[in-house]
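Course assignment 3, question 2. Fill in each field.
Student: A.L.
Task: Predict the tertiary structure for the chain below.
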Amino acid sequence: MITISLFRNKEHLVRFTVSGHAGYAERGADIVCASVTTAAFTAVNGLVDVAKIDAEVEVREGYLACKLPKALSEKQRESADLLLESMILSFENLAEQYGEYVVMKNYTE
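Answer field:
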């Protein structure tokens, strides 16, 4: 199962983790795992390469973590919110459609 953990302060998503494997299909043919991975990496690439946010990113087998810096310009914050909320919508759709394989957890920091 893939566990998606979202960590928010009072107003914004400040970090997230994606861990595990879906187990929907064999490795290389698992559309659930591929979909979650694509949504997460699209957001991370957008944050780092497009919005120029110096996010802390950790990637290893079956795990992705992304933490935003505390100090963001107003433009960076707006970009981060758009990218991350779009990612969350994708995750919510996947969790709704493939609930046996994807779970989302929300935390407040």
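Instructor remarks: Helices lie at 31-50, 74-97. Residues 28 and 34 are 8 Å apart (CA to CA).
Grade: pending
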